[in-house]
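Fold this sequence, please.
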Amino acid sequence: MHVKIAVVQTRTFVGEDEEKNVSRALKYIDQAVEKTAQVICFPETYPGPWRAPISFSPIEALCDKAKEEKVYVIAGTIEKVETGQKGCYNVAVLIGPEGKVLGKYRRTTPAGPWGYKSGNHWDFDYVEADELPVFETQFGKIGILICSEVYVPELSRILALKGAEILFLPTGLTNKQQWATWRTLIHARAIENLMYTATCRNILGVEPYTHGLAMISSPEEVLLESRRVGVFVEDLDMDRIRLLRRTRDIDIPKDKRAWKTKVGLLRYWRRPEMYKKALSSW
């Protein structure tokens, strides 16, 4: 089984113009569909809103477009906490090809409050959530994390152990000092969890828009990488991921090993009884 995924690295409006992102997102979906993408991922809090109080929602328009084009869409927004607690969740919404919201990932890490309040771009009282869902699609299971959660390997590992074969990491803005480590971690999360990883960023400012990081990695290699605005599509071989996960390297002669990474990591290279002992002292 194969699936074509698109990561959309956007020219993003913030502030008074941020609602313009919605119509632009619909055009990006059209571009991705022209490239035969079946799952389309936008950056963190794109198309928005970015700021409280929440003045619009992009979800209905995105659901209509997803239904029209029969694709999955991962879009970013913020939503009010409904428990009586003040503040907002940072949310990645998964929309299915029937035009319905299939689920949401609400950012979990770090604990709030954090740096979204009173910024030049974001401005909302961030509240952390506590769940790490995995979503079933017709192509397999996917997980979603947000932005710098890539620096927390436990999150990706939990999603992999729950069955996620593709991990989407929609990202906010660029920190040039962290670009090299970010790139390394996107690939590392793919290697250590035998999953595909995919990320893209908002880009602010003017041409030539060369400071983003759109990237798709397999456990064996970086498949795609660009710093520019655009819609980037890659074909993923889901059977390959499943093969890497179920294979035990010692069962195959060395001269027959046709992979570029360590296989069987989620089954044969784990000792959970040892981890429980180590973690009990924290």
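The longest strand covers residues 2-11. The two ends are 42 Å apart (CA to CA).
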